[in-house]
Design goal:
206 residues; alpha/beta; Metallo-beta-lactamase, Chain A; 6-stranded mixed beta sheet; 5-stranded mixed beta sheet; globular
Length: 206
Amino acid sequence: MLGDWATNCYVVERGSDCIIVDCGFDPEPMIRSIEERSLSLQLIVLTHAHLDHIGGLDEVSSRYPSVPVVIHERERGFCSDPMLNLSVLAGMSVRVREPDHFVKGGETIPVLGTEFRVLHTPGHSPGGITLVHDPSRSALVGDTLFAGSIGRTDFPTSDPDQMRRTLREILMSLPDEYRVYPGHGPSTTIGRERATNPWLLEMAPP
């Protein structure tokens, strides 16, 4: 967990290589974890470009200048725009480097000797993505789905209707046993959220 917003930022490792998923403020503990285990950072993926998920990107990139950064194409320009990354709402002006590569959703990212499926999961933000790793039955979902809750949809670039479609048609299409790693709070499973999440139960078709 990084920064005042307690953002879950993940170091996904396999063998001696790793990737980072999201770069919150004050990322030194994450950097130290990578360096202490002598891991080789291969890629940085941003689930979306809200300030609490990008605030430490420049600091991480300064330590690993050759490591590429990936985000969804619908958030092109968000990292360097305080209005779009919502930092102005917090009385801040966050401007960090722009990513190197842009995804649309539907791709696979080959890294760590395996593959991650990219799902476009908008609603909380227009370019929100979920990284699905089928071999380990896991999904890194950013701020789309939480244990017992869902991401906010009252921000200027949020869309409640898109969030409903994302949750019902995309995330709930994953098998129950898939473990969900959210941008805040504890991990959960698709099955647990399908059965108990009040927001999802409210969205369930009659």
